[in-house]
Design brief:
heterotrimer; A alpha/beta; B alpha/beta; C mainly alpha; A: alpha/beta; Rossmann fold; eight-stranded mixed β-sheet; four-stranded antiparallel β-sheet; 12 helices; 12 strands; C: mainly alpha; MetI-like fold; disordered N terminus; transport (chain C); MetI-like_sf (chain C); transmembrane (chain C); OppC_N (chain C); cell membrane (chain C)
């Protein structure tokens, strides 16, 4: 079983699957229900975008997958995370560590704080190669240069000896990607990888991620709040709100006919590049406090479509065709309107 | 919404009515100086409220612990000129390190300029001292980027929004201040009864509204917005942008709107200046910059913005720039963009391209300026 | 560092639970008159049991210090060698010391000098340190350089040696009477300790100065004193307050050390420090000589630490 995640093995089910995940943050002020039954999956060579605003739980899901939630305050209270069918929440720390480096890797928004400032970039890549794969110092160095080259860092042989602070923002994110690729993960989680970067650099990094993903047939989970970035790279999109996936669809259908009022409102509130608009459509009010999530549909206090039942009945997943779901009582109506 | 569109229609007709007059004015002015004219807005008749000329801000790079010596200069802002008209929004876009935030700090007189002038209603703000400077503070205000650090965590909202009145007691007599603070909170869409709360009790968007209320307190003519919405979530960002738009029409404000998000800038701006490594590389109306960009950098910047439409994926022409922005300590000779530019030739390394109208269009600083439409 | 992946994971973006909680409804701040930080802090303090207990202890000690005759009618300096090292009894609750003096009376009378030295030394230290620290932190440049260098000179002096030098100078100047001696001890402690408070304040001020709210205040035209008092001070006070309360205990101890060396307080100024150092050689035969003054000392220091903690929390709206 331990070898089932070796590259080349043909998986039966999805590569990585999150099912009905519940996470709470037990704080001084009360219990914040951060994830309330999140399910998604990603297959080899596929890009799943997890779209949401801050506090929607998109990053927490990723951290739960990686097993790096801060406990306390975070507690996983239910659900499963399956990698090649193996429930990661049920295995020991040792097995978790194995999967963490060689099965699923993660890159963060802030590459500067994710790199250790007192070691050279090369050392940080070599370290895991030596520890995990038993490579010699020399082989590890060669591999590190190769990896930096792969992420198109110029002068890789020289750069490998430099410290993170000597890298520019874009270079650091490239170095982070190189590091996450060192052990050939099958799934890469990119948590807001370009949010801290300028738009021209963002384009470079997204190109690079896309290219590497296609080349290695990696599963990519892209966590972001940027509707533009999502539209450019995602195959499927999961929209999160208040710790739930409110809509799940392939990219083209989601943008053409949003199946949830929240998705629709989010798209409407974007300023446009191609024309100077008049007043923007906004979503009234604020995202709910996770300490006190509204009953029924959590979006109902802000929803233009809300009716009385929305405040009482929690909307189930409505199926809207192949692999498409929406947690809205009026999902069918919303989609058929166009 | 209808009000805004009406307004823009009106200004459109005004524009065409006045174009005749402006033609004559322009020819008169052109004798004076070509570049001078080009910096002015297309909107004639309105007088510039803020005129910035050749603004330079260099930060010395010092080394040493006890005996510091200067080893170089960070050329954060290196010769920036523009006009801001009454009631207008001038957008300033550029990537990090282009000097747009330094520009805001210098214009607010938070940092002294290295050289150059900025005239507010004809008077040089860098020459102001004492009482005159205090008066200037009432006329130009700033909204800062980070809603989490821009409010003193140990002051109540009432104290924060009321602080301008304490610093400038002549604006409002003591008894009327609490009322004014409530009024301001109401104007920016906050509950006036919340004036005893502390900043941490508000969300990011609400905090940004508090920052805006503070900037509005002294009824300024100009507000410099330094990335006011870039730290906010999409849905909240739209609320704050609408608020800024509404306040502008309500109070006749002029904005210098600094941001890195090109869509946000387009939405709010009448004119746009594009900055790269301390210099303005292109300036023009929102329409000119976005629909008829002349400078290769502007084109690259616009083309790199991801479009929220998966159906055009792979069909858009995207100009991919190589590498990162060079260090402002040692910028490239000649045109600063030449190291990343696909059009660069020998002349670009030798001659600094002036910011002047090229190809019959608006001012751009490129030897090979050529219109190329990149926004779908 | 063993595994870069997990090391990187450890520094994941802010996971604080508060990041997921938006705009909590706060019960205590309803509509009404505008309030300020200090009045809110006071309202908050009055409801903290920690503050009430600490406050009660300190008030009691203050009363003992000011009116020792209310608590005992025995003369603390009355010697009766026949009672030497006698253990506590109905006549003398805390027993007698080596020279046959009533320990209870001495503890009561010692409160005055102990508190006086401890309090004034830490207040003076914090005042001097905070003043120079905030000046150095706010103005920076050469002012910071000058203050920091001077601070380093004082900081470099070994405490006991420095105090011996200073107090010997005073002694040679023929200073007599209890108050001037107390003042000399307090001054020597403060002169040698202020650089610590200065450094704490300075770094806090430098951090606070770079915050955007200071930028916003400057953009409004706020004067330097206004920025220092309204914006820097409330945000920099907490670490110095904590230092002050901890230092209070240390200073009472330092005073005891100096007394033990014969250059600190001396009769008629009795302090707990003096009593503790007197008792040191008799811990086994007469532990009561040490336990009672030491117990009072501990309770006092604890009360001040609790007070400092309560004040620090009350001044931070986020912790309310």
């Amino acid at each position: 079983m331990a070898d089932s995640y070796e590259p080349g093995a043909v998986p039966d089910g999805p590569l990585l699957e999150v099912e009905d995940l519940y996470v709470e943050f037990r704080t001084r002020d009360g219990v914040a229900k951060v994830l309330n039954g999140v399910s998604y999956h990603v297959d080899a060579g596929e890009t799943l975008a997890v779209l949401g605003e801050s506090g929607s739980g998109k990053s927490v899901t990723a951290q739960a997958i990686m097993g790096i939630l801060d406990t306390p305050p975070a507690v996983v209270t239910g659900g499963e995370i399956r990698f090649h069918g193996e429930n990661l929440l049920a295995v020991g720390e040792e097995r978790r560590n194995e999967v963490r480096a060689e099965g699923v890797a993660i890159i963060f928004q802030d590459a500067l704080s994710a790199l250790n400032p007192v070691y050279t970039v090369g050392f940080q890549i070599e370290e895991q190669l030596r520890v995990r794969q038993g490579m010699s110092r020399r082989d590890a160095r060669d591999r590190a240069v190769e990896l930096l080259d792969l992420v198109r860092i110029p002068n890789a042989a020289r750069r490998v000896r430099q410290y993170p602070h000597e890298f520019s923002g874009g270079m650091r994110q490239r170095a982070m990607i190189a590091m996450s690729l060192a052990l050939d993960p099958e799934v890469l989680i990119a948590d807001e990888p370009t949010t801290a970067l300028d738009v021209t650099v963002q384009a470079q990094i997204m190109d690079l991620l896309k290219e590497i993903q296609v080349e290695r047939r990696m599963g990519l989970i892209l966590i972001t709040h940027d509707l533009g970035v999502v539209a450019e790279v995602a195959d499927r999109i999961a929209v999160m709100y208040a710790g739930r996936i409110v809509e799940h669809a392939d990219a083209v259908s989601l943008y053409r006919t949003p199946g949830h009022p929240y998705t629709a409102a989010l798209m409407d509130s974007l300023p446009r590049l191609d024309q100077k608009g008049s007043t923007l459509n906004t979503i009234k009010g604020l995202p709910p406090s996770l300490l006190n999530i509204p009953p029924g549909c959590p979006f109902h206090p802000r929803c233009p479509r809300a009716e009385d039942r929305c405040a009482v009945e929690v909307p189930p997943d409505h199926r809207l065709g192949l692999g498409r779901t929406s947690k809205c009582h009026f999902a069918e109506e919303l989609v058929s309107r166009v | 919404m209808s009000e805004r569109s009406l307004r823009s229609e009106k200004s459109g007709t005004e524009r065409s009515l006045r174009s005749e007059k402006s033609g004559t004015e322009r020819s008169l002015r052109s004798e004076k100086s070509g570049t001078e004219r080009s910096l002015r807005s297309e909107n004639p008749g309105t007088e510039p409220i803020l005129e910035v000329r050749d603004l330079v801000k260099h930060f010395p790079v010092r080394v040493g612990v006890l005996f510091k010596h200067t080893v170089g200069q960070v050329r954060a802002v290196d010769g920036v000129s523009f006009d801001l008209n009454k009631g207008e929004t001038l957008g300033v876009v550029g990537e990090s390190g282009c000097g747009k935030s330094t520009l805001a700090q210098v214009l607010m007189r938070l940092e002294p300029p290295t050289s150059g002038t900025a005239r507010f209603n004809g008077r040089d703000i860098f020459a102001m001292r004492g009482a005159e400077l205090r008066k200037l503070r009432r006329s130009i205000q700033i909204v800062l980027q980070d809603p989490y650090t821009s409010l003193n965590p140990r002051m109540t909202v009432g104290d924060i929004v009321g602080e301008p009145f304490e610093i400038h007691p002549e604006v409002a007599p003591k008894g009327s201040r609490a009322g004014k603070v409530r009024e301001l909170l109401d104007v920016v869409g906050l509950n006036p009864e919340h004036l005893n709360r502390y900043p941490h009790q508000f969300s990011g968007g609400q905090r940004q509204r508090i920052g805006i209320a503070r900037a509005l307190a002294l009824r300024p003519d100009v507000i410099i917005c330094d990335e006011p919405v870039s730290a906010l979530d999409v849905s909240i960002q739209a609320q704050v942008m609408n608020l800024l738009g509404d306040l502008q029409s309500e109070f006749g404000l002029s904005y210098v709107f600094i941001a890195h998000d090109l869509s946000v800038v387009r939405h709010l701006s009448d004119r746009v200046a594009v900055m790269y490594l301390g210099k303005v590389v292109e300036i023009g109306t929102e329409e000119e910059i976005y629909n008829h960009p002349m400078h290769p950098y502007t084109q690259a910047l616009l083309s790199a913005v991801p479009v929220a439409d998966p159906t055009v994926r792979g069909q858009r022409q995207v100009i991919r720039l190589e590498g990162d922005v060079p260090s402002p300590v040692d910028p490239p000779s000649g045109c600063r963009f030449r190291t990343r530019c696909w059009k660069a030739q020998e002349i670009c390394a030798q001659e600094v391209p002036e910011l002047e109208p090229r190809g019959g269009g608006h001012p751009s600083a490129c030897h090979f300026a050529e219109e190329r439409s990149v926004v779908p | 560092m063993t595994d870069p992946t997990t090391a990187a994971a450890g520094t994941a973006p802010d996971l604080g639970a508060s990041a997921y909680v938006t705009a909590p409804e706060h019960q205590m701040s309803g509509p009404g008159k505008p309030r300020s930080l200090w009045s809110d802090a006071w309202r908050d303090l009055r409801r903290r049991p920690l503050f009430i207990i600490a406050g009660a202890v300190i008030v009691l000690l203050a009363i003992i210090a000011i009116f020792p005759s209310w608590f005992t009618s025995v003369d603390p300096n009355h010697k009766d060698l026949s009672h030497s090292r006698e253990t506590p009894s109905g006549a003398a609750w805390f027993g007698y010391d080596l020279q046959g003096r009533d320990v209870y009376a001495r503890v009561v009378y010692g409160a005055r000098w102990t508190l006086l030295v401890g309090l004034s030394a830490s207040v003076l230290t914090v005042l001097i340190g905070a003043f120079f620290g905030i000046i150095a932190g706010y103005f920076g440049r050469w002012i910071d350089g000058l203050i920091s260098r001077i601070g380093e000179i004082f900081f470099g002096l070994p405490f006991v040696l420095g105090a011996i030098v200073i107090l010997n100078l005073v002694r040679n100047a023929e200073i007599r009477g209890a108050l001037p001696i107390v003042f000399a001890v307090v001054a020597s402690i403060a002169v040698l300790s202020w650089p610590v408070a200065m450094r704490i304040m300075r770094s806090a001020a430098i951090t606070a100065k770079q915050q955007d709210y200071v930028k916003a205040a400057r953009a409004l035209g706020a004067s330097a004193p206004r920025i220092i008092f309204k914006h820097l001070l409330p945000n920099c006070l907490a670490p110095v307050l904590v230092y002050g309360t901890i230092a209070l205990g240390a200073f009472i101890g330092a005073e005891a050390t100096l007394s033990f060396l014969g250059i600190g307080l001396r009769d008629p100024a009795v302090s707990w420090g003096v009593m503790i150092s007197d008792a040191r050689n008799y811990v086994r035969v007469a532990p009561h000589m040490l336990l009672f003054p030491a117990g009072f000392l501990t309770a006092t220091v604890l009360a001040f630490v609790m007070l400092g903690d309560a004040v620090r929390e009350a001044l931070d709206p986020k912790l309310r």
